[in-house]
Amino acid sequence: MALDDKTMGELREIAGRYPEKRSGLLPMLHLVQSVEGKVTPDAIEACAQILEISAAEVSGVATFYTMYKRHAVGDFHVGVCTNTLCAVMGGDQIFERLKDHLDVGNDELAEKRQGDQYSVSLEHVECNAACDFAPVVMVNWEFMDNQTPEGAVQMVEALRAGHDVKSTRGPKLCTWREAERVLAGFPDGRVDEGPSAGPASLAGLEIARERGWKAPDAAAVPVIEKGQADD
Amino acid sequence: MTDMLTPVLTDMWDVERSWTLAAYTAKGGYQGLDKAFGMSQDAVIEAVKDSGLRGRGGAGFPTGMKWSFIPQDNPKPKYLVVNADESEPGTCKDIPLMMGNPHVLVEGVIISSYAIRANKAFIYIRGEVLHVIRRVQAAVEEAYAAGHLGKDIHGSGYDLDIVVHAGAGAYICGEETALLEGLEGRRGQPRLRPPFPAVAGLYASPTVINNVESIASVPSIIANGAAWFASMGTEKSKGYGIFSLSGHVKKPGQYEAPLGITLRELLDLAGGIREGHDLKFWTPGGSSTPLLTAEHLDIPLDFEGVGAAGSMLGTRALQIFDETVCVVRAVLRWTEFYKHESCGKCTPCREGTWWLVQTLARLEKGEGSEADLDLLLDQCDNILGRSFCALGDGATSPISSSIKYFRDEYLAHLTHGGCPFDHARSTAWAGQEVTA
Description:
heterodimer, A: 231 residues, alpha+beta, Arc Repressor Mutant, subunit A, Glutaredoxin, 5-stranded mixed sheet, 39% helix, B: 436 residues, alpha/beta, Rossmann fold, Ubiquitin-like (UB roll), de novo design (two linked rop proteins), 4-stranded parallel sheet, 42% helix, 12% strand, globular, NuoE_dom (chain A), metal-binding (chain A)
């Protein structure tokens, strides 16, 4: 089914943010995922038409980046970091446990059981820049820090049951489609939820505060005039 | 004597609603703008040069010098692109920085764009960090509303627009020319250089690409002076930087300190290695920087000190592994990562990383023979320096350094007929949880 007028308008709006419209392709593909739930053939045609490039060129881009999906994903897409640091800290055990619990392989959608409010899919992801909170799980690209296998199972069950689950460093989790819309550049008003920083982020700052450590006082640093330093 | 920790960028992170314009302004934010607009563009570039700031994204190229390479007689538009695609394994500084203090990045973008005469700037953030993207989107919105962005900023006559651009999952887009490809709506495959982006970057126009932390350091340099920045750090590695400790330490986290601090000093602050264990190996700046060991605890963590020890300062991503960790398992996992993330453009990297995984996986299972270690080193030799970008080079770092320091451990896999380590002992919950 072709994309609706609203979506086509928003796709053109994204392309219009850039000096050359093709630059909009990555956020445009995020937007079509928020509407279609994946990158569909119709979505590829729509992007190609707006950007005046071939469908093959759009397809080539859509298949290069791992966040673009050609198959259905869950309302909540769970990514377990299994890069070395997180794997060693327990990410491997979390991923194994979730695969077993959800009865899926990598990048697969778990069965939506009778009574489940939402569906869940599972993927192992690469380093997500939260190593000081290892082992880390991402849900719809929000941080779930310092996870355990048991905690991760409880979390996916809470998500399936439709309970509110909050990111450890962010807002209440939204659905994957809602997340994709934010990535396309359409904010959802959740920016003020969640903390400024997680506990690990503040480890050094807390020590500095305790001990009164600061960067030097600018007024106390002698100003070196140009040329003087070479004398 | 400078204090051991020097919070500048992290100084906002414990402030209530630190991500808002109100909080940033209350702490003196955006004061660098008028000071910068009162200087000539070249004077801003000179100040950044004089500060000694070197790129915080890993390579350590002098930031002011990079800016001065922009040919100002080129009639095409100039662009500033912020590399916020933080993905190097172990690296986790830019993400908390943008979450807790996005306005310092926006202020840095304005001053830096002014200096290189760009009227359009892009912040390319990896897509997998939703809340960070929200915070940066909102900071840009607020800056527009406050008149810090748009037309005739602060009555200076200078115009600037910022576009926040979300990536879509590709480690390679942290490489600057691959990032430009992604920003142009293409597959993220690195370009052959020359021409360098300063001459022909985004849309073949003069482009500066800087890391988040580099750009975020600029407002403090303009506000406090180049000499203030240069009063921190070591002779050739000036200023402060965020050091990210992760893994088997008691208090993993972010520690902002002058360059040149040692791992021993950082570990002391972080409470040491977790109870009852010892340091085995560590990365100074992400997985692409050769491994170091306990014998390197006292090297100054600056560009020269780590280089002299045979590794690289990189992104100051200090991944700490204790004696429970199998180095072969660690290296295999990184190698699988490089294989997965190789963009496929250059044959030595595309094919080479595939073969590295084959060889390493066999060794890890206790199969193969000692000759496979030489085979691995030979494969590394055929990858290193033979591709357009440094991804393949990075893939060889953990392999060659681990064979250098832990050759016996590879051999132990052969004599043991598999991995001699109990991986459960390495987990964050080892010893705390009774496993049924």
